[in-house]
Structures are given as structure tokens and as C-alpha cells.
Amino acid sequence: MAESGANRYRIRSETNMVDQSSKHETTVQVDFGGEAFLETLNNNDVEVVFINSGTDTFPIQEAAAKYQAEGKRTPKFILCPDETTAVAAAHGYFNATRKPQVVLVHVDAGTLQLSGGLHNAQRGRAGMVLCAGRAPMTFDGEMDGSRSSSIHWTQEQLDQAGSVRNFTKWDYELRRNENVHHVMQRAFQVAASEPPGPVYLMLPREVLMEKMETTQNLPTKRYAPPTTPQADAGQLKAAAEALSQAENPLIIATQSGRNQSSVQAMVELAELVGAPVISESVHLNFPTDHPLWAGITGNQYIENADVILAIDSDVPYIPINAKPNPDAQIIHIDIDPIKQSIPMWVFPTDSLMHADSAKAIPALNEMLTEMLSEADRARIEERIDTIKDRHQRSRDEAVALAQEHGKQDVITPQWLSHCISEAIDDDTVVLDETVTNSGHVSTYIPRSKPGTMYRSGGSSLGWAT
What we know:
Rossmann fold; 6-stranded parallel beta sheet; 5-stranded parallel beta sheet; 14 helices
């Protein structure tokens, strides 16, 4: 799933201007907690809820049915036959919209069923608000929603959220309807903040069924995610100087294409310094039909580079396969520079910058444009011509190999990928979950438009289907 047309090239902008009318809380009439929860979704412009329902989610479903019958706005509820389907769909919608998506599952069982899809969302940096029911807290009928089935005992865990805490940025339990608006706004804010990711919220049935008269809606603009950082100017200038004088520069990108405006900026950077670009795309970071695109691994470039610029990369290279030259200067720009959720991240760097690449790369390009002399540009252009010739020969050899495979009795990955490329157009969105055949997909199915290539970012299969 992806945006099309002008929206695909939307450039994210930030402003300090705030609509004064949006600064006030508003009071909304509701009849019970499920409606109060639904109001927070409406207030955050949630369009869809991916749901796998249970005995604990029905107050929200009843609220949505009531709103629909009364002609009120409500998100569309998309029934998912399995929780992994729900989280994968939310992942896709987030990639297309860059807005946190909502998933609703039932208690501990539904939470555990998120499993591999949640891993993909974490590593793919997909913002989503994962909501799960909680076994009712009361069992003598003290409140509406008390336990009414044997499963309400067996589904209660000592720490339900603990099963997903390694994979989420934040977790909480809604305990009172009086602050449902604050709890949900916090959930959306954390999920959307860079680097985005899943958050987890438990919803007790008694709270969702509690009778109410009103609830509050917060001014969402006042609870927006924080602005993202720009790279240190001195470090960025030093990076520009190193790249401008490099004999064998290399760029490695993994997640920069999440900001679609970054793709053109990356092309400009590569052409300014004459650097091949390795891109194992969670998003399309660099056009794979560009003469400077060097594939998804490019081990030979890693070993020979004298200056390496890694951008938003969790694993810039695999040391057992290829290591940079010990004398190479390594620069890393990342919105998540120390990888707190990856216990062992030990890639050496000479400059590790905490920055939004959508801001840092254009600034780096400006510095390079001013810094490069005519002699530098001539030297770089000569290097680009050499790389172009080498890559064109590789492309010609790859096409010839695919066509030769087309004469065989079996369908090989090369021939299949080549045929798919012949059948689709530039706007087709490719979801790549081929794992060991990803190199063939990238080689034979070129993508040039931002938002037309995605991988999950994780390693749990089934995401694309």
C-alpha cells in the first residue's frame, strides 16, 4: 500500500505556528467508556482500526456501531482473521501515511499472536497504537463488565504487557475513564516520535463499559511529536570535507527513504561526491536504476572505500563478509544512533551524528556544493563515468543471464523477477519478502519513485501477504 500522485512526493514540513483555536480542550457527550475511547480515535483522525475481536473488545465495537447508526464519524473497523494480519496491515498503512495506526486485539492470547508482526513493526520503525483487552478485574458483579466466563480467569497474566515490552516504546494500562484522553494522546505522541514504533495499551472491560456523561478531547497539535534534530554543523562540515577529498567514497543507506523527500537529496549527494550507494531498502532510499546504485550488499565497495557514509542503518555491513579498511573514515548519520533496543551494536565510527537525515543530507549537499572546486568536480565526474561503465556491464550481464534462464524448464528467481519487471509500471508498489532472493528482486525489478519499494525491516515472514 502506498500513496500515489502528488501525495507520494509530499515533503514533511515543520512550523512553529499554531492555530489558536486548537489550544482548548473540548467536551463531548458520551454514554460509556467505549465511546470515550472512540472519541480519542476520532480526535486523532484515525481512519481505520485493524481488529481481531474477543469478549473484551465488544464495548468499542458497540460504540462504533452506535456512532455509525447515528451518522457520527467513526473509524472503519477492518476485521482481520489473525492478529499477525492486523499488525502487518497497520505496518503497511503506516508506511503509506506516516501516521500511527491502531490495532485492537483481545487480552493475552491476541497479544501473543501479534508475535513476529510486532518484531517487524519494531525493526521497521512502524508507528502504531496496539490496544488489547485485559481480563476483567472484578468477579462478583461489582461493576458492569465483571467476569462472566471461565476464560476471564485463565486469560489474566501476572504481567500481560511484559510479553511485548521488548518490542514496544511504551506500555500502559487504562485504569480510569477520567484520563482516557491523556492516556491515548500520550500513546499517539510516543508512537509517532522519531524513530517511530509500536506502543501497547491494555483496556480493562469494566473501564470500557463504565457509564459516562462526557469526555474531553485534547488539542492534538499541542501533543504532537517533537521536532527532529539537525546534525552538528561542525561534524557535518568535517564530513563534507572528507567526502569531497575521498578517492573511493561509499554511501550506505537503509531507512532514510522513510522520508520520501530524502530520495532526491540522496541522489544529489551521490552525484556530488561520486559515490556508489549500497541500499538494503526497508524503504526505497535510492533509485535502483540509477548508475550509482551498487546493490544491497556491495562488499567489494566496503573493503576498498576510504570514506564511508552510513545513513539510518542498523547493520551497515556484516563484518564476517566484508570489513572497512582500518584506515577508512566512517561517518554515520542516524535518527537512532546508538540503537538502544539492539543490545550489542558495535560498529566503529569516526563521527556518529544524531540527526534526521531528511535535514542533514540537504545541509550536507549545500556544504559540498560550496566546497567543491572545479578540479574536484572534474575528478569526481571521471570517477562517476568509471562506476557507470562498471555498473552498466553488470546490468547487461544480469539481463543476459535472466534471458538465458528463460529458456530453461524451471522458473528461476532471476527469470521470474525479470518477467515481473516487464509486467509492472513505475507506480507499482513492490513488497519484497524474498529474503535470500532479495538481491535478484532489487537487480531485476528497478524502482525509481519514492514509496514504491518496501521490506518489513524485520525477519518474521508473512508480512507482505
